[in-house]
Amino acid sequence: MSLPDFNLLVTLDALLAEGSVARAAQRLRLSPSAMSRALARLRETTGDPLLVRAGRGLVPTPRALELRERVSQLVQETEGVLRPTAKLDLTRLVRTFTLRTSEGFAETFGPELIARLSAAAPGVRLHFVQKPNKDSTPLRDGAVDLETGVIEPTTAPELRTLALFRDRIIGVVRQGHPLLRKKITSATYSAGKHIGVSREGVAKGPIDETLETLGLNRKIGVIVGGFATALALARASDLIASVPERHTSGLRVGMESFALPVPTAEFTVSLLWHPRLDADQAHRWLRGLVRDVCEAIGQGG
Which CATH number fits the domain that encloses residue 184? Predict the structure, then answer.
């Protein structure tokens, strides 16, 4: 079954509103002959004459009177759908955005983000959810609006990304830790008891690979799934945590941090979202707000 020509709705709306082929043609900037042909198509499509001659003018049939209000409403709604989006009014925006990120990001950047959001758009609510893996399905199916993370070869290629900040891995221990009593070297660092961080439960990572080139090995005393847990354990023990610097600045308050005595590569933390939300004004505003907050907080400690 072929689809009807929806352009005929606009033509029918003009004809029923004007009650004249000539005036309807003028309204739509068509020639009278083109409007007459359109009326003929409308009569064939609806199975009704719609407008019939009465003296020198045309009068609507009962079917035309029945359709007039509905057609007018349909045309107005269609024009509204196709009209450019009105300027975003943040003061009247009511919406919940779901941001999938780590506890460290929420702890470090969340307070400032919430403060700015509340001041500009009091009707907007943030929903932070944990990031147990790098699966892009929540972004694809709309369960998540935004996500933070490091872009990797396995990242879904269709996702849009925005770089937020550069970060590096540092060492963190409790105040008064024995490691702090002398210069921290690759040997003294590796000799301590460490916390491994891995969602998959893998004990070794890039730090261990670098240490092995120096003939050294870390002793991993415990493996956890996230940096927040690692820091909580390090705060209450002699375990050594190795975590991202900027990402965890809010979680390291009251602890001692130090540069790793072995070289590690810096990495970029980015914001990710699905392309279907790329042009959404409210979503675009929130993306900019997250970026501005990350820039404003600076390099952290």
Answer: 3.40.190.10
